[in-house]
Amino acid sequence: MSSRGSTIHEAARGFEHAPKPYEIGRPPYPTEAIERLVAELGIEDGRRVLDLAAGTGKLTRLLVPTGAFIVAVEPVEAMRAALTKSLAEVEALAGTAEAIPLPDGSVDAVTVGQAFHWFDGDAALAEIHRVLRPGGRLGLIWNVKDESVDWIEKLGGIMEAYRGAAPRVASGAWKDAFDRTRLFTPLQRARFSFVHEADFAAVVARVTSVSFIAALPPAEFARVVDQVRRLLATHPETKGRSTFELPYRTGVYWCTKA
Predict the structure, then answer these.
(1) 44, 48, 214, 217: which is deepest, by most CB within 10 A?
(2) Cα dist. 42→103, 120, 139, 214 in Å?
(3) pTM of the full structure
(4) Domains within the chain, CATH numbers bracketed
(5) Cα-Cα-Cα-Cα dihedral of 196, 253, 139, 123, to 10°?
C-alpha cells in the first residue's frame, strides 16, 4: 500500500470512532458562505446534487432547504449511519471520490466539505467530471482554524504533534490537481470569517474528531484530552471561562466542468 493509501486507511479507521465528536466539535458553516456556494453552483429546486465525502452531513443538511435532490456519498460506515439517522430524506451511498457509485452525467453539481485534501486529486477530478452533466459545477468548502489567535495556535499544536503524513488543507497541495487538469475551468474563490462559541466538551470534541487523533491508542488519546484540558485551564485567554470563542476562516471554491 502506498503511503497515501496507508494514510487514508488510518483516516477511515479514525473516523469510524469519530461521528459523535465530529457532530459536537466541528463548527457549522457560516450562512454567507453557504449562500455563496449555493449561488455559484446553481443549486435550487429540481437540481440533483452530489455531496461527496459527506461525513455526518454537516454540509448536506444545509443543502436540503434549497429543494434540490441531494445524494450523499461517504466511505466510512459509521459516519454514513449518523448522516442517515439525522437526514432520512437524503439518499446515502457507500463510495469514494475516486470511485463514485453514480452513472455518467447524473448530477448538476458536486459539493465537497472539509475533504478534498484527502482525495487523490487527479482521480477524484476525473470521477467528478464523469458524473457531472455538461456545464455542471464543483464546489469546495473548508472551515479552517484562525491560528493568529495564540490559544488557537497552541490548540493546533497539540493536534499537529500527531499528524504524521496526514494531509493538511492549509498546505495548498490539494490545488495541484486543479492546476494540472483540463477537465475544469480555473478555480474561483471567496473567503469568509466567523467565530464558533463552544463549551469545554465541544473544544475537546473538536480535537478528538480529527481522524489521526481518534485513531490513537486509549492511553495516548487520554493524554491528548489532558493537554487540551490544561491549555484551557491555564492560558490567559481561556482560564476561568466556561465557553470559548474559536475563530475560523472559511474558504469557498468553485469551478465548471469543461
Answers:
(1) 214
(2) 21, 26, 10, 36
(3) 0.92
(4) 3-143+167-194+249-256 (3.40.50.150)
(5) -120
